[in-house]
UniProtKB/TrEMBL annotation:
This is Glycine cleavage system H protein. Binds 1 lipoyl cofactor covalently. One of its GO terms (biological process) is glycine decarboxylation via glycine cleavage system. SUPFAM superfamilies: Single hybrid motif. The modification N6-lipoyllysine is found at residue 65. The gene is gcvH. HAMAP family: GcvH. It comes from Psychrobacter halodurans. GO terms for cellular component: cytosol; glycine cleavage complex.
Amino acid sequence: MSNIPAELKYIASHEWLRLEEDGTITVGITDHAQDLLGDVVFVELPDVGDILAVDDEISVVESVKAASDVYAPISGEVVAINEALEDDPEIINSDPYGEGWFFKIKPDNIADYEALMTAEEYENEL
């Protein structure tokens, strides 16, 4: 079974979210997703300042096996991106919940975050 940290929230398309102390939300793909993709070779990230709506296609991850879209899990504004992924995308494979994060978003409504799947619910989806 994949590594599924209990403190995070999840969506069915295999993105994870972590609420930070400053109220922003960090987003990445799950261990399960990176395992399915295989060795990640390229990541296209959104731009800082992008305004996102739920389910917008906001990023692309390419691996030796496939390309996969990443969707906005909540609405809000992108306030930071993980520029390290541009030069070293394989960080996603080695540390999907840490250094392999994709972007940070300032949510329009924090209640949207609270309504997302828990680790247990996500594990049941798998």
